[in-house]
Amino acid sequence: MTGRGDPLSPYLFILYADVLSGLITKAKSDHLIHGVKIAPSAPEISQLLFADDSLMFCRATVEEANVIHNIILTYQRASGQQVNFSKSEMVFSKGISGDLKKDIANILPITIKEQFSKYLGMPTVMGRSKSQVFNFIQEKIWNKLKGWKEKNLSFAGRSTLIKAVAQAIPTYLMSSFLILKGNGGMGFRDLRAFNEALLAKQGWRLITQPSSLVAQVLKAKYYPKDQFLEAKSKNQMSYSWRSILQASWVIKKGSYWTIGSGDNINTWTDNWIHQRGNTTMWTPQPLNPNYVKVKNLMTNSTNEWNTHLINQIFIAHEAQQILKIPIIDRTQEDTLTWDGTMDGNYSVKSGYKAIMDWGINTDANKANSSNNPKDFWPKLWNLNVPPKHSHLIWRIINNALPVKGNIFKKGIQCDPLCPRCSTTIETCHHVFLECDWCLR
Ligand SMILES: [Zn+2]
Questions:
Q1: CA 153: distance to chain centroid?
Q2: pLDDT tens string 375-421
Q3: Which of 16, 93, 259, 317 yields a CA-CA distance of 20 to 30 A from 335?
Q4: pLDDT of residue 382
Q5: pLDDT band per the 50, 70, 90 thresholds, residue 70
Q6: Taking residues 296-323, what's their average pLDDT?
Q7: Where would I find the Reverse transcriptase zinc-binding domain in this sequence (predicted)?
C-alpha cells in the first residue's frame, strides 16, 4: 500500500512515521503480518517509509488485511492524521484470485492497481522496455537543449550546457539507474561519467556499510557467498542492481585493499598487490584458482606471509612485492581505500574526476568522444613525420610492441622485468614514459 498524505511539517512527519513504523514492526514481530523476502536469507521487509510516501507489505489474506486496517486506525487515532485511501494504491502478486482480492478490498478500501506507479518519484517496476521508462527524462532534457547549438559553444559554454542538462535529471534517479545509451540514452560522456560516479557511490555503501538494510537484501539476493566486488551478472537482475553492478568497475579500478585478516580480499581479482593506480596483476590466474582469499597466503598463526607458498605461485616480481606488504593486525577487517580522496573514502566528485581522467572507453563515450579512433587514425597517418615513426606510434597505442610484459602475457616463459632498470614489468607505458633509463 502506498499513500501520500497531506502537506505537513517534515518534523511532524518523522514523528508520525515513527509511530506507524513502530506499529508495523510490532505486528511483524508478533507474526501477525509477514513482509516480503526476495531471497531465502534476505531480511523480511514489511515497510518502506520515506517522508509522506509509504510502502507496506503483507500476505494477501483476510487476516493480515485486517491487521493492516487496525494499524491504520490506530495510527489515525494517535496522530489525528487521516490516511487518504483514495490517494493510496494496492497491488497483488500474480496468482491471487479475484474473490480474495474483493474480500481484501472490502477491508481496505483502496484502488487495486496492476503495479505501483511511482515510489519517491521513481518507477517501481522496470518492464522490458527501459526506453519507455526513461522517455520522460529525455523529454525534459530535450526541452532544455532546444535553442542551444552545441557545436558553436566554447569549452566553458559546453560545460554550462552539461550542467543545465544534468540538473534536468533528478540526481536520485541517476543514483539508482544507469541511463541507457541508444534508445532513450544520452550521448554525453560527462553525463555518463556522472551517472556512473553516482552509482559507484551506492556500490561503495554496500561495501562499507554491510549491515544496512539495502546491503543485506542485495547480498542475500545477488552475492550471498561473495563480496560485492566479486558479484557476477545473472540473468534475472533488477534494473537498479544491474546498474550498480555495471558501475562497480569504478571502485574496482580506483581503489585498493589494505590488508587486515585477508578474509575479504580475493587473491586473483582484487587490487591488493600493486597499490595506487597500478591495477594489473601479472601472475597468470590459474585455471582452478586455489588460495582464493589473501588469508590463504598467510601462515596459520602468526602475522606473516607464507613465503614458500607465495614464491611458488606468484612470478618473482609479484612475490617480492607481496612479501613487502606488512601484515599489521589480522584481527582487523580488510579495508578498501579509494585512491581519489585524502581520507580514502569514495565521493561522487572524486569518482567523476577519476572516470574523466581515465578517459575510459565506456560504451557511451566510445561512440561520442573526440578520441574516437575514426577521427584519430587519419590524423596520425597524415602527420608530417617519417612513416616508421607513425607506425611506431600506431604500435604503441595498440600495445602491439614485443615488450617483455606482452611476451609474458602471451604465455612465453621469460623474465618480464624491464631489463634496463629491473624495477617493474616492461610495458609500453613503462618503456616510453616511466623508465628512468629512457627519461635520461
Ligand atoms: Zn625500466
A1: 33
A2: 677 777 777 888 778 888 888 887 888 899 888 888 888 888 888 88
A3: 317
A4: 77
A5: very high
A6: 89
A7: 367-437
Q: How far is the CA of 79 from the centre of ligand 1 (A)?
A: 73
| Per-residue pLDDT at 168 | 61
Asked whether the beta carbons of 229 and 193 are under 8 A apart, the reply is no
Query: Which DSSP category does 284 fall into?
Result: P
Question: Residue 39 pLDDT > 90, yes or no?
Answer: no
DSSP 353-383: HHHHHHT---HHHHHHSTT-HHHHHHHHHTS
CA torsion sign, 55 to 58 to 59 to 63? Answer: negative
Kindly state the cell numbers that stand for 381: 597517418
- C-alpha 349 to ligand 1 mean position (Å): 34
> Which residues contact residue 111 at a Cβ distance below 8 angstroms, ignoring those fewer than 6 apart?
86, 88, 89, 90
- How many angstroms separate the alpha carbon of residue 434 from the centre of ligand 1? 7
For ligand 1, the distance from its centroid to the CA atom of residue 114, given in whole angstroms, is 65
From the CA of 406, how far away is ligand 1's center (Å)? 15
Question: What pLDDT, on a 0 to 100 scale, did the predictor assign at position 413?
Answer: 82
